[in-house]
Each structure stands twice: as C-alpha cells, then as structure tokens.
C-alpha cells in the first residue's frame, strides 16, 4: 500500500485520487469481463474520474489479503444497441476533465468536404483475441494537422450553438450541470507519439464550456496543458493530466471564496501589479467554475458485439444518440439499423417490380440521385417521392410488403413509434441516395402515424407545375395542397442548409418540424424559401454526381442562407438559421393569408423566465393538475375500461388517444426527475500535489 499524503489540502475543487486507488482502478478494469479497455486506456481514465474507491469491487480482508475483482455491478450500466452492448461506468468527474469529440457525424462530412482541413484515418482497436476494444483510434500526419482539425471543430461547435436561445456557459456557471455527459476513449497517433484521451460521446458543448469557465482551451483535454500557464517554460506541455491537474486545482482552491474586487492592484509597482492581476484572474476563475467543480459522467468501458454482426464500436456509440454523434469521417454506411432496414425495403420493392432498376440503384447509393431526371428540380421531387413511395406506400400490395419486411403489425395497428422508425429509414435512404449528405431523422418532418397507415399524399404534379400552383396568387384548395407538398419536398434542402432543426437538443425552439413548416407555408416568403431549399439541394445532388451545378436565372449563390423578412439581400448579415426561422414564422392559428411572416412572440426560454416569477404558483397548479388527471382517469375506467364492450375501431381510437397522453406523462416524469436534482457535495476532497512532479516532460 502506498503511503498516504500527510496533509491533504482542503477545498471545493476536487483533486485526483490517491495513486493507490488509481492503480486499483486500472486492475479492476483489467479484471472485469465487461471491460474491454487495455492498461493505457484505463490509466488515462483513472485521471479523468474521482472518488474511485466506491467503484472498485474487492474480496478478502486485510488478514487474508484484499483482491480486486472488477467494478461494482451497481456502477456499470449495460446499454444495448443493434450493434452490440456497450458498458458504461458511472463516475464523479472533475469539471476540468475530458475533451470535446472531434468526430461527431454533424461535423465529419464538413471536414471531409473541406479540402483545407485534414481528415484523420479512423481504425478500430483489436484485442489480443481479435475482438474489438471500446477504443477508437485516429491517426494524424502531424500535430499541426491535428491542431487544424481541432480548430475547425471548435468553430463548428460554436456555429451549432447559434440555434440556442440561451447561454449554455452562463447556465453552467449559475446552475451547474444536471445532465450526465458520456465519454469514450480515443487513441491518438501523431507521428511517433501515441496517447489516449476521453472524448465526449454526448456532451461536447458542455465539456467545452466547462473548460472555458476554468480558463482552459478545448485543446487542453486532448493535447495537454502548456506549462507556461502555470509559470513554466514556453514550448512545453504536460500531456498527462496527472502532471498538471492537481497543481491547477490547488490554485483554484487557494483563491476560492476570495472576492476578486478585494484584491487591490498597486499602481506604483509594476511587478506587484502583475501578481495582483494574476491573483484576481484565479479568483474570478474559482468563482465562475464553482458550480461545475464536480459533475456526473459515464465512461464507456466495454463493448460486446452482437452475435452474427461485424464488430462496429463507433456505430454502437452512434446508435446511442440518434446517429448524431461519433462516426468516422466518410463512414456513413449500412451498419446502422435504419439503413439495413431501408435496403431490405428497396430490395423487396425491386423484386416486386414496384421500382425500376435505376431507382433501385439510386436508393442503394450505386447511382447518383441526379440521374433520376435531367432537370435538377425534377430530380429532387422524384427522389423525395421515390423514398416516400418505398417507406410510406399507399397501395395495398406495397403496404403489406412494407409491414412484412419491417416486422410490423397490420397498418391499422401502427403507432407513433412505427412512424419514428420509418422516419429514420427515410432519412437513411435519402442520405445514401445523395452520396453521404447527412440528414438526421430528428431534424426531418416525421409523418403522423396516420400517414404510416395511409401513405404520404402527393399531387403528382411535376416540379414546375407544383411550384406554379404553390405560388398562385389566388387562394384555393389546390394551392394549399401544392404548398403542403412543396414544404415536404423542401425539408432535405432545409436540413442540409442547417436552417430547420427538430425539437431536440438544446435548441430554443421546441416546436415540431411539422409545426414550423405549417407556419411558413401559409406565407409567400415561406414558399420562396421552400423553392430556394429545393434548388440548393438540387445543386448538392448535381455536385455529388460530378456535374456542374448551374444556378437558375435570377438565383444568387448562397441565397438560402441570406433570406431576410421575405426579401433576398445579398448583403444581409442575418443567415436563415433556425433562430431566424423561429422569429419569422411563429405559430399561426389563422387562415392562409399568403402574406409575409409576422414577428414571433416570446421565445420558449423567455416564456420560461416569465413563468419563473411565480414558481410557487406553478408548483401548486402542477399539483392540482396531476391530482385532477388521476381522478379523471379513475372515473373514466368504468366508461372505457376492460369490462366495457367496444368495437374494434372504438378500441383502436381509444388506444391511439392513450398513446398521446402516455408520451405527455413520460415527458412530465422526465422533467420532474430533473427538478429533483440536488447539487453534488464537493466539500470532501482527497489528494494533493506532493506526489506529483511538474515540468519534467520534454517539449513535444
């Protein structure tokens, strides 16, 4: 047993665990059959977590000898996916630990398409038994290329946050982090150097903003801390967190509780003034980062591939978060369940002569989608209708084929969950057809479950006639139908242009995509935006087919991103992002006026701020509502309960209504759990800087 540190320094910012417990943590991982990490990965993970002792399972006692047997079962969660089972270890984490994820699918293709940004080589890590470890290995030609890649990703993270209606960094500083972030091991190879880090499977923005609160750059979690930050020489860095984290933490604890304004800056002594300014900076950091001094996290420690499938660790990670997280660049393949189901549908439709040989080739990615028609607009319309015809058919024969392939109940018994699954399949097929353009299902307009049973309606008009009908100055049922279909066909272009996001993630606008489209399509400028989105997506399809994308007469480059208040302004500084979309087309309850969009009411975050003024009243109202709901369903049991004789249609209608209510109740329970969250007690800390040597690493 290693000697304990004589006087562990106290403070609300936690230090690393004792070397003894870090060593036991590594041995627990090597012993636990659920863990597929090697020693170097576990050693890095041991510096990313704190309070390790309660995680470690042992047998024996001091007399017989204590033997480490693995991790405690209560700390490990199995996460089943279609690609196998992931095992996550729940831990407490210092707020300044871990790194952002560079290989998020939302950014990977942007990197791959940008000729100036290096694309790393991503490879799986094999176990000695030829299995796959829970490690993703990436290789860069040099550290300079890694820095270029990291800089680009930081910019993409910043751009992605424009859709938020609140300041995540400020929220973390005031309220702390209530949602558990998830991390996995990434092994970097840069020339002759090899090192491990923990990248965010889910939580890159939270990790980045936590680092910012601590006064650290996002690169610290990946590249290490420059020694000059703590008064060391230029050109050197500590790569291993054990070489710098406790020293940095000691500085925070030294200045914790000190008001920065109480530190006086002398005006007659430049050296002392410099020291005072540095002390004030540390006091400000300690104050800003206190709420995230300790956070909850989960580390992916193991991966067990599904039987009969090719081991695909990064696909298993991706499937845990709606395919919006970690995947290797240019690796959006048929390894995900949605694409596999989509290909089965396409193959069966081709076998039944429901689609042509060209259509089959397009949907499987063997032929560019631009080949569907010589006119680019017509190609987009044909592609969307083709995918709808395969995934959401309307004729009896195709309905039977689709439900059989997807192992679904009869069409009359399809539910919202089946519509969501079909929506994911449609997104996967559109993505494959256009050659890798990522169209995440969560951002698309998932049809209502009635559409799953009946098929998506279409006017059957050509692109030219559809646009003519939608832009007609005379209101009519035909114009409304044309605008409805035009909005649906425009969605891939809107999503690809980062204009319209779904009601997921940390976006300020929680309205469903269908609600946003309905608000936009009753306006003339909304219809113009749809046409521009179709043209933009047509250009993408042409470029992916190796053709020159020629703008239509009157169109301007980047027009989709520069629409403002219904008018196209080449010099506009406000792009047509989701925030603009929200303010331009609020929820509309009136008829089809065909006029310009109207200013939005308060955003959801602003509405919430107003409601917080009467928190007690809201709690009382919630209590009364829940009580009334319980009594209401108790009273209805005698009316529609199991003893009531009902026809099949009546029973089906009632079950559909219950599905809707059930989702609302589940959402309420989720929010209730968040409200019950209590901040972590960070008063008890262990460790110190006595056992660590600083500044011994050579310049990298």
Task: Give the proportion of residues in helices.
Answer: 40-55%
Q: What fraction strand?
A: 5-15%
The best one-word shape is globular
Largest sheet: 7 strands, mixed
**Overall pLDDT confidence:** 78
- Estimated structural class: alpha+beta
Distance between the termini: 34 Å
Rg estimate, integer Å: 28 Å
What is the tally of helical segments?
Answer: 24
| Unreliable sequence segments | 1-6, 322-335, 502-508, 564-568, 588-607, 678-700
Tell how many strands the DSSP assignment holds: 13
Structure description:
The protein is α+β, with helices and mostly antiparallel strands and 700 residues long. Helices cover 44% and strands 12% of the residues. It contains 24 helices and 13 strands. Strands 3, 4, 5, 6, 7, 8 and 11 form a seven-stranded mixed β-sheet that branches. Strands 1-2 form a two-stranded antiparallel ribbon. Strands 9-10 form a two-stranded antiparallel ribbon. α11 (337-351) packs across α15, α17 (463-470) crosses α18 (477-496) and α18 crosses α20 (524-544). The protein is globular and about 80 Å long. Mean pLDDT is 78; it is low at 1-6, 322-335, 502-508, 564-568, 588-607 and 678-700.
Give keywords:
two-stranded antiparallel sheet; disordered C terminus; seven-stranded mixed sheet; disordered N terminus; 700 residues
